[in-house]
Write a structure and sequence with these properties.
Blueprint (H helix, E strand, L loop, with lengths): L2 H19 L20 E2 L31 E6 L2 E7 L10 E5 L6 H12 L4 E4 L3 E2 L10 E2 L3 H18 L10 E5 L1 H12 L6 E5 L8 H6 L4 E6 L4 H13 L4 E6 L10 H13 L19
Parallel strand pairs: 1-2, 4-5, 4-8, 8-9, 9-10, 10-11
Antiparallel strand pairs: 2-3, 3-5, 6-7
Helix pairs in contact: 2-7
C-alpha cells in the first residue's frame, strides 16, 4: 500500500483513538460557578497538533489532510495583539476546519466562565473566542473580575482576537459567518456590532441583554437570519416573544430560550434551553454539518 493511501487510514485511526479517550461532556451549568478560583487555562503555544505530512506522491487535487487537533486543555489562553489574552475553547480532535463562535461575558464576570458554558452548549464543536475585556477597578485584583469598555473598544479587541485565532489555528478555522453570543453587558455591546455587519454575524444568541434597539429589517437586509434570546427572569420572556413577532414580519426568525425565573444568569436551565435551540440556529450552515472524522459532534 502506498504512502498516500496509508495517511488517510492513520488519520482515521488517530481520530478513533481520540474518541476513546475523551470524557463525556458535562451537563450545562455543571461548572463551579460560585468559586472565586478561575478555571484552569493552558497557554496556546502547546495547543496545536501537527499537520499531517504531505508529500509529492499525494494526488495533486486532494484537499490538505489535517491531523486531529490536540490541546493540553479544552480552554487555552490566546495572546491578542494590543489587548489582554483572550480565552479560546478548542475543538479537540477536529480534523477539518471548524466555525467560530464569539462569546462575550457580562459585567463583573470572567471570559473563562463564558467559554466553559458555551463549550457545553455547543458540545465542543467549534472554536469559541472569549475576549477578556478590561479589569474591574472597583474590586480587588484577587477577585479576577472583568468588564468591557465602549462598543468601539470592544470592536477593536474582537477584530484582533479573531485575527489571532485564525493565525494561531491556521488550517483548522473555517471561513464564513461567525455566531455572535453575549450575556448581559456583552449582549448589550454586541448588538450594535452585529447591526453594523449582519453578514459577518448572521446568527445571534443574546442572554439577559441585547434585546433593545433592534432594527430587524436592517438586520435581514444586511444578511442576518436567526436570533435566540435567552431568558432567566420572568420579565424577559414576554418582551422577547413580542420581539419575535416583530421580527417575523420582516423575515427574521427568532426563538426564545426560556430558562425559567432563576435570576440573572447564563448557565444551568437557561444554558440547557439555548442548547436545545442550537441545532436550529446553525441549521443550513455548511460549517456546522456533522463531520465524519472527529469525536466532537453537535446534538441533533
Amino acid at each position: 500500500m502506498t504512502g498516500w493511501m496509508l495517511r488517510p487510514l492513520a488519520a482515521f485511526l488517530a481520530a478513533l483513538s481520540t474518541l476513546a479517550c475523551r470524557p463525556a461532556p458535562k451537563e450545562p451549568g455543571a461548572r463551579p460557578r460560585s468559586t472565586s478560583e478561575p478555571l484552569a487555562v493552558t497557554r496556546v503555544d502547546a495547543a496545536l497538533g501537527a499537520t499531517a505530512d504531505s508529500s509529492a506522491d499525494a494526488p495533486s487535487d486532494a484537499a490538505p489532510v489535517l491531523a486531529p487537533l490536540d490541546a493540553d486543555a479544552a480552554l487555552v489562553a490566546l495572546p491578542v495583539q494590543g489587548f489582554r489574552d483572550a480565552v479560546v475553547s478548542v475543538p479537540i480532535g477536529a480534523a477539518e476546519p471548524r466555525p467560530i463562535v464569539v462569546a462575550l461575558h457580562g459585567n463583573f464576570d470572567r471570559p473563562e466562565w463564558q467559554c466553559d458554558v458555551m463549550r457545553e452548549i455547543t458540545h465542543g464543536f467549534a472554536f469559541i473566542l472569549c475576549p477578556r475585556g478590561i479589569p474591574r477597578r472597583d474590586v480587588s485584583k484577587s477577585l479576577d473580575r472583568w468588564e468591557y469598555g465602549s462598543v468601539k473598544q470592544l470592536q477593536k479587541e474582537l477584530d484582533a482576537g479573531l485575527s489571532a485565532v485564525r493565525e494561531r489555528f491556521a488550517g483548522y478555522v473555517a471561513d464564513g459567518p461567525i455566531v455572535m453570543t453575549g450575556f448581559s453587558l456583552g449582549a448589550i455591546l454586541a448588538r450594535p456590532i452585529v447591526m453594523g455587519d449582519p453578514a459577518r454575524f448572521p446568527r445571534v444568541v443574546f442572554t439577559e441583554g441585547g434585546s433593545d434597539g433592534w432594527n430587524f429589517k436592517r438586520f435581514k437586509d444586511g444578511g442576518g437570519s436567526r436570533v435566540i434570546f435567552g431568558c432567566a427572569q420572568a420579565g424577559c420572556v414576554p418582551k422577547c416573544r413580542g420581539l419575535a413577532k416583530r421580527a417575523e414580519r420582516v423575515g427574521v426568525e427568532v426563538r426564545v430560550a426560556d430558562g425559567g425565573n432563576i435570576g440573572h444568569t447564563y448557565d444551568g436551565p437557561v444554558a440547557a434551553a439555548i442548547q436545545a435551540e442550537w441545532p436550529w440556529l446553525v441549521e443550513a450552515d455548511p460549517n456546522w454539518q456533522q463531520p465524519t472524522t472527529s469525536p466532537e459532534r453537535m446534538p441533533r
